[in-house]
Amino acid sequence: MIVEHYDVTFKKQLGQNFLKRKEVVERIADVCPFTKHDLVIEVGPGGAILTKELSKRACQVLAYEIDEDLKEQLFKKLENFSNVNILFQDFLMSSLEDDVSNYSYENVYFVSNVPYYITTPIIMKIINSSLPFKKICMMVQKEVGNRFSAVPGSREYGSISVFLSYFYNIKKEFFVSRKEFIPEPNVDSVVVSFTRKDKLLPLKNKDLFFTLVRDSFQFKRKNLRNNLKKYNLEPISTVLKKYGYDLTVRAEQLSVEIFVDIANELVV
Ligand code: SAM
Which candidate in 60, 64, 66, 245 could, as Cys together with 240 as Cys, close a disulfide (CB 3.0–4.6 Å)? Predict the structure, then answer.
């Protein structure tokens, strides 16, 4: 078994658990159907093991790495890969749309073994960006992957499941053991993909939808009447009735379609 060598001091606080084996990285890179006309965004190239595979498959790779101490090693490992551009900055603070505007491409994809401490902010930044990501492929902590793909009525179903299922069809691609990383973390992982839905449900006010969903799940054990006290409850009750529910229902029972319907009803 060939194991990638890294000459770095790993920084736990930056989520630095690097993949060791090319076989795992190839499977991740195979999830998206890149062509030589496409652009891929990667967060956290780390030791470039995934970046190299992406660079072989797509036309251009734009990567964000927060840790400047990795610069020398990254440049060395990528010296023969001329289609990779690394911006040494915090992805969460980046001007993604501006950075991408310098490229011409057919489709844009997002592929990353994300730093787990900022998984949700990364996803929210992608969802809220105006870039039409054709497919997103992420390695995340196993339990987080379960939340992303959770369906109404299940324990893991939460606001992030609703947001994601509004925009994407979600698929758990494959499991990755903690043994595949260096240093070995104390969690297992899963690779998940999000494919943008061809047709999104019509939404009159996206911000209102996001706020409504967040508020509905604010206290998981409370019902809608209690979580949505500050809202006009009459139209909410009317929509719920259509689906056979009343205000005593908990958010975890409601599908994305019902949330969209309520959000649209609240727009005057
Ligand atoms: N892609 C490599 C791999 O698969 O082996 C490394 C993945 S490691 C889990 C996450 C990487 O994200 C690290 O290199 C870390 O320095 C970087 N990172 C952490 N926070 C970041 C941020 N806010 N913006 C950009 N990169 C970040």
Answer: 245
